[in-house]
Amino acid sequence: MNTCKQEIITIFDTTLRDGEQSPGASMDIEEKIAIALQLEKLGVDVIEAGFAASSTGDFESISQIAKNVEKSTVCSLSRCVESDILRAKDSLKYAKKPRIHLFLATSPIHMEYKLKKKPKEVLELAIQSILRAREFCDDIQFSCEDACRSEISFLQEISLAAIESGAKTLNMPDTVGYRLPHEIGEIIEQLHKVVQDKAVLSVHCHNDLGQAVSNSIYGAMKGARQIECTINGLGERAGNCALEEVVMILKTRKDIFKQYGGLDTRINTKEIYKTSKLIAEITGIRPQPNKAIVGKNAFSHESGIHQDGILKHRETYEIMKPSDIGIYDNENLVLGKHSGRAAFKDKIMQLGFTLNDEELHVAFNRFKNICDQKKIVYDEDISAIVSEEITHIPQIYVLESLQCSTASNGAHLAALSVRKNNGEVIRDCALGNGAVDSILRAIERVCQVSGKLLDYKVESITSGKDAMADVMIKVVFEGTNNPVIGHGKDLDTLYATAKAYIQALNSFERMKELLQDKKDLRYGGV
Ligand code: KIV
Ligand code: ZN
């Protein structure tokens, strides 16, 4: 019989709200829905889907997420402003478990210079806003913005008033990432003395000094029962507390957390890697190779001594198993040339995808093509093909063919044909300074657009000379300031490049409609 007591930490994911404030990390509605569904699969308790009053696009994506998510609580951020509260409430109309998240600054510097309000006025505004939000929603979270530079006595006073007005969760952000772990511990301990079990205390730590994860863990050790975090530690400036790190700390160091009530989470850690890859793919922001838990090198041992030790006994140099976060060995060879459609369908289900008949047909044909060209087909190859096929971005342009001629010392030529969604096929060619330049120019001629390339990355999906390339392109097309991202995957890197640029163009077309009314308020005013 397991008699170990367990205190479950609520995992509040803000990748879609605070994470989206990472420079260049904007996502469109379909992408946000895909992320929310994956977060639900990961076992996140609360998904902060956006800030409803900030833009029509945010409002719409919160509503869609609220409609689609079944198990996780869906949360909408709101300033302590009547019109924001109403937008938040409306955005959550279809949520099975809605939460309104109100925030108001409580530090002397924010109250004086940003809000231009006295503490008494801030207290009153918090009370009135919580009471108003409670008229629509039972689950209210109140955040003291810049809590960790606020007077502890004021935090205690406003926390008790917030509870009295109906708030169930009190969040204490280290908004500027200033504090060290023991200081956060002290703040939470002081608050816990007065709040006790009348509300859930929460930590929300930014990473400006690289302490976000340690600070959050320390907060939990001193009584916080909600941790706010993002996948891959995405977020404004140096980012937020990384979900995968706090979760794996709690799982790996159970020996320590036993003394703190057996802290744990409901996260299905086997979904961590997949979630991290999805976010990296959509935002174009990949974790650095040495990033804890999800970095490319997090589980690879270069040194001979380490490799030898691992082979003899895994735990000599490994404190977690790659499979704990859903990474399986490359030797996990899957299907080959002779595999049939049924085996392929079975495999993609095992990998967690659901395809309709048409998507399955296209993916299977691509798989067969790849089998003709590549000796070993890994799970990762199959995931790459399938994820490319199930894009929900309308395919206005599709690449039909590409021909490149390159010369080491001269102009490069790309000739291509693109099919438009009205059936028209357009062909053209262009010269450029290098293969990539000529391909992008040819696409621009064919599709009559002009773009400024912000980023271009090529990664191999698996190891081996015959590995597929994953090309990521970030571009700003003429007519907006918003960058879009495109991915292309193929055995031929140049073909993958053309596909990535065309995918970015399709996202741009999709985004154009949404951008028309996107006025971005973010954190101005109250
Ligand atoms: O960092 C912060 O203070 C925030 C609040 C809006 C919760 O993100
Ligand atoms: Zn924040």
From TrEMBL:
Top enzyme class: transferase
Boundaries of every Pyruvate carboxyltransferase domain copy: 9-273
Cited PROSITE patterns: AIPM_HOMOCIT_SYNTH_1 (PS00815), AIPM_HOMOCIT_SYNTH_2 (PS00816), PYR_CT (PS50991)
GO cellular component: a single term: cytosol
Requisite cofactors: Mn(2+)
Molecular functions (GO terms): 2-isopropylmalate synthase activity; acetyl-CoA C-acetyltransferase activity; manganese ion binding
Function field: Catalyzes the condensation of the acetyl group of acetyl-CoA with 3-methyl-2-oxobutanoate (2-ketoisovalerate) to form 3-carboxy-3-hydroxy-4-methylpentanoate (2-isopropylmalate).
Keyword set, alphabetical order: Amino-acid biosynthesis, Branched-chain amino acid biosynthesis, Cytoplasm, Leucine biosynthesis, Manganese, Metal-binding, Transferase
Species: Helicobacter aurati
Annotated family: Belongs to the alpha-IPM synthase/homocitrate synthase family. LeuA type 1 subfamily.
Listed name of the protein: 2-isopropylmalate synthase
Catalytic activity field: 3-methyl-2-oxobutanoate + acetyl-CoA + H2O = (2S)-2-isopropylmalate + CoA + H(+)
E.C. number: 2.3.3.13
